[in-house]
């Protein structure tokens, strides 16, 4: 427990986050290669799956280019709020990092739930859900504004007094954990793990388009958030992946922009300004139900 009380420098936190980002991508690449071999042995590997996976990595490159230009502004905003508006400034110790990680995981739950709760956010997040496959590469399938919304959900951690670089590290750790969940290779883990932690089984449910699985299992690391807030569903029947209607394309530009292309088209064709506003603030299922009624 003495280690948990040990103080760490900002430099060590920045180094750790950089190390995790750099080396985990190599680990994810190796795991993805194992998945492809498994699919090949099961005779489920296809050129379309390979193309879809390549598209996922291209959307990742789009995100990285965006972050290259706005990343400093993101960090600067966190630092400015921390220096001028935080309630306190917590020391960087094992305990504060652990506390920040738990709260960052809770923030991720609500951020993720927000992505599914209104048309504007779903326009970017639907990209991540649009693949008809489920493997490690899908974790890197990003939309054009995936970098934008998380800022507002993690800002409260800065106001509470957590160091900005600790918050960024914890954001990274939650995302790294999430990446490992995108697989069909792991079926179900022992019950105590399935009860507390998010697992591949739980996350397959989240990516499903089966009606009983819709808008379930938003968790990052701890599935207890879904159990607490009534959004948990257990994987029972086989999962069908993707969005409705399906994109049916591996063109990275079409995949990357399809969410907002669809939203803009819906807004353009909307009968009233009230309807247009609802397209932005209501869950995407609302728009789908309206379309069904008009047919």
Account of the protein in words:
With 295 residues, the chain is mostly helical. It has helices at residues 2-5, 10-41, 47-85, 94-115, 119-129, 150-160, 164-180, 191-196, 200-206, 224-229, 252-269, 273-281, 284-294. α3 (47-85) crosses α11, α4 packs antiparallel against α6 (150-160) and α11 runs antiparallel to α12. The longest helix has 39 residues, at 47-85.
Write the layout of secondary structure elements.
Elements: H1 2-5, H2 10-41, H3 47-85, H4 94-115, H5 119-129, H6 150-160, H7 164-180, H8 191-196, H9 200-206, H10 224-229, H11 252-269, H12 273-281, H13 284-294
Helix pairs in contact: 2-7, 3-6, 3-11, 4-6, 4-7, 5-11, 11-12
- Low confidence ranges: none
Write down the oligomeric state: single chain
DSSP strand content: under 5%
Class based on secondary structure composition and strand pairing: mainly alpha
Helix content: 55-70%
**Termini gap:** 63 Å
Report the sheet with the most strands, covering strand number, pairing sense and barrel closure: none
The value of Rg in angstroms is 20 Å
Instruction: Please give the count of helices.
Output: 13
Number of strands: 0
Question: Could you tell me the mean pLDDT?
Answer: 94
Quick description:
The chain has helices at residues 2-5, 10-41, 47-85, 94-115, 119-129, 150-160, 164-180, 191-196, 200-206, 224-229, 252-269, 273-281, 284-294.
